UniProtKB/TrEMBL annotation:
It comes from the Bacteria. Residues 1-78 form the GST N-terminal domain. Pfam families: GST_N_2. This is Glutathione S-transferase family protein. It comes from Rhodanobacter hydrolyticus. The lineage of its organism: Bacteria, Pseudomonadati, Pseudomonadota, Gammaproteobacteria, Lysobacterales.
């Protein structure tokens, strides 16, 4: 039984596990209450951020690294094209762009707009982070004008990575996406694996209900 600690980016991991049909459980982590009050979680990840997983003797952090581990350990899976597959370069690019280019930058926009004092919500750093997100989003938009999914005609883990980032932008930072991105999210979020993951991640589902998108 694979244990996923924490929602947030842990949603990517839960969704992947659902798509792969792997047994798992979600162990909630309340960051707002303070991880210093959660010694079990700190024993898994002393750095105190989510997600983390425990898989037998293996513990890991970082959502994209966890996804790559799971697909390599329990694959092969069509969610990860093989290196000789023509879809592999785009898959690899967007799998990592979903975090490094999109979610990592918009995270700071979310923090500024949700938690900073009013006078700091549009500060220089938040503006820079938003610019980074928007330039990388342009790569997503261009790719989706060519193919229905980011690695081509079939759904892959790259779509899990990017879908999470786009939904974070919508619900966390109030960023309005274009019609191309909205249609893409309608495709990815209609998947049975996504729907099962949302039922598991109750806090995320409640957050979405509180933050309707533009």
């Amino acid at each position: 039984m694979i244990t996923v600690f924490g929602e947030g980016r842990g949603f990517r991991v839960v969704w992947l596990l659902e798509e792969m049909g792997l047994a798992h459980r979600l162990r909630p982590v309340d960051l707002l209450a303070g991880v210093e009050n959660d010694p079990e979680f700190l024993a898994i990840n002393p750095a105190g951020f989510i997600p983390a997983i425990r898989d037998g003797d293996v513990t890991m952090v970082e959502s994209i690294a966890i996804m790559e581990y799971l697909m390599a350990r329990y694959g092969p899976t069509p969610l990860a094209p093989a290196p000789h597959d023509p879809a592999f370069p785009a898959y690899q690019q967007f799998l990592h762009l979903g975090e490094a280019g999109l979610a990592a930058s918009v995270y700071f926009v979310v923090g500024a707009r949700s938690f900073a004092p009013e006078s700091e919500r549009e500060n220089w750093s938040a503006g820079q982070a938003l610019d980074v997100f928007q330039t990388r989003l342009g790569l997503v938009t261009r790719q989706l004008a060519r193919t229905p999914y980011l690695a081509g005609d079939r759904f892959t883990a790259a779509d899990i990575s990017v879908t999470y980032a786009l939904e974070l932008a919508q619900h966390g930072a109030g960023i309005a996406l274009g019609e191309t991105e909205k249609a893409y999210l309608a495709r990815t979020s209609a998947r049975a694996g996504y729907q099962r993951a949302m039922e598991t991640c109750e806090s995320r589902k409640a957050w979405f209900a509180r933050t309707p998108v533009q």
